[in-house]
Amino acid sequence: MGMFLNNKSPIINYRKMTVNPYFVDKSELICELIRNSYANQYICITRPRRFGKTVMANMLAAFFEKNTDSSDIFDSLKISQYDEYKKHLNKHEIIYIDFSEVPDGCSSYKEYITRITTGLKSDLIQKYPELGLDADKAVWDVLSEILDKTNGQQFIFIMDEWDAVFHMSFITDKDKDEFLLFLKSLLKSKAYVEIAYMTGILPIAKYSGGSELNMFAEFQMTTMEMFSEYFGFSDNEVDELYSRYLRLCKNPKVSREGLREWYDGYRIASGGRLYNPRSVVFAFQYNQLSDYWTSSGPYDEIFYYIKNNIDDVRNDLALMVAGERIETRIQQYAAVSMELNTRSEIYSAMLVYGLLTYEDGEVFIPNKELMRKFEELLMKKEALGYIHNLAKESAKMLNATLAGDTETMEEILDHAHNTETPILSYNYETELAAIVNLVYLSARDKYRIERESKAGKGFVDFIFYPKKKTADCIILELKVDHSPDEAIEQIKEKNYALNFKGRLGEKSEYTGRRLAVGISYSKETKYHSCKVQELT
């Protein structure tokens, strides 16, 4: 086994994945990649972390690699049904490079890149001893010599985390330029390249204006439809996994709706939605809906720029935490630098890193898992000023609602609307809804909150489903320039409380009170009015 040539680690790692009870077969990517390579053999897949890029890279290496037999894995997978299967299974020389790996104690780019070049040349010389290859030559010259002396031996390059160097502390701007030149020299216009498959987070389009990497066709999550289905889980795939979970788990505690709320919502170019695959699998394995997001490096730096309130980003952040979408122009290139100076650059970087998602010209927080990260930012970072203070008031708002303390509710809403930097004008109920969502921020720990949800004979503005079935249920209706009494009457007339009742002949699983909450705002007086009434 070589260090980079026909390395056995990918097949070992992929075989482990296939025996996981929550494995999802995405082997059809192999066929699409082969067919696409006829037009262009340079493919780059860019996705946020935790979307299966490394799993797919391991799969490709396990499938193509020569001098091994992986039929025990792939005979039962979808790829086995295609004409390309037998033709390509274990028929290719594979060069697999994980660019995130560094030598022990590495402190310079020279040490980093030398490990790759000397390791690869050593593999090639060992593989082809009869060719008399010269270790002093550049690695691309050695590969070209192999091509010539073997009558056309080609290689499939599988390169994971191509952009890892951009996050290494010892890498300088000059080093980055040298790395790009290395990739160009290794891959561009080289006859020995049968396929070059590369993955990463950062978009390579930044560099396409020059000549380094413009041979790659780049497939980003929000702009290119092709390959989208292979990175992340679809609704149907999660349905199948959930069925397995119910069969395998003795005491299942994860709900199907909970999976959707926590991990769904990432938009792709086709308009579809994807689940975070890593988090879904962890939820099944640990039998718990939780935050499995891990943040480090670029994520913390992006939050640093948010904290500086560039172009009122903090105000937008409050609206997004309140469930709103923010219109912006996306600049995918921005993520390659931490010098983010505008709203669009900040949101573009957050999109690339998977902190936001994008649809129809708007960015927003896709799901509860990510929402909790933003809530932590609001609740813990004093530098966020008045938004931090508003979020802190949310615990008081829930308690006041449950106690029927309308005076406190009105004070909190008035304070939220009349802060030193107002974020809303309340021309429409949607703006009132945004501030209501914010002041009930802490309620999300105890309730599943749905907005504009189908209930009874219509659609209710907010409905709070308690996670603890004995807790009180809340139905909340908003009015602008109408009284909270009218809101309460609408709740009754349209029978919104029907959602908390059991099916015909069955008892409701919710045993707490059913509270109707009316909140109104007068554009003339600039004050809020509230009413809380228990429904019988």
Question: What's the short story on this structure?
Answer:
This protein is of the alpha/beta class and 536 residues long. The chain is built from 20 helices and 15 strands.
Shape: elongated
CATH class of the largest domain: Alpha Beta
Number of domains: 4
Low-confidence stretches: none
Helix-and-strand structural type: alpha/beta
Radius of gyration: 28 Å
Largest sheet composition: 5 strands, parallel
Termini Cα gap: 73 Å
Walk me through the structure.
The chain is an alpha/beta fold. The protein has 4 domains: 9-228, Rossmann fold, CATH 3.40.50; 235-286, no CATH class; 298-389, no CATH class; 393-535, no CATH class. The protein has 20 helices and 15 strands. Helix 1 (9-18) crosses helix 3 (53-64). It is elongated.
Descriptive tags:
Rossmann fold, 15 strands, 4 domains, five-stranded parallel beta sheet, alpha/beta, 15% strand
Topology of this structure?
Layout (H helix, E strand, L loop, with lengths): L8 H10 L9 H10 L4 E5 L6 H12 L6 H4 L9 H5 L5 E5 L10 H19 L11 H11 L5 E6 L12 H15 L5 E8 L16 E4 L14 H14 L7 H8 L2 E2 L5 E2 L2 H10 L11 H10 L5 H9 L4 E2 L15 H10 L4 E3 L2 E3 L3 H13 L5 H7 L1 H10 L2 H12 L11 H11 L7 E9 L2 E9 L6 E8 L3 H10 L20 E8 L6 E8 L1
Parallel strand pairs: 1-4, 1-5, 2-3, 3-4, 13-14
Antiparallel strand pairs: 6-7, 8-10, 9-10, 11-12, 12-13, 14-15
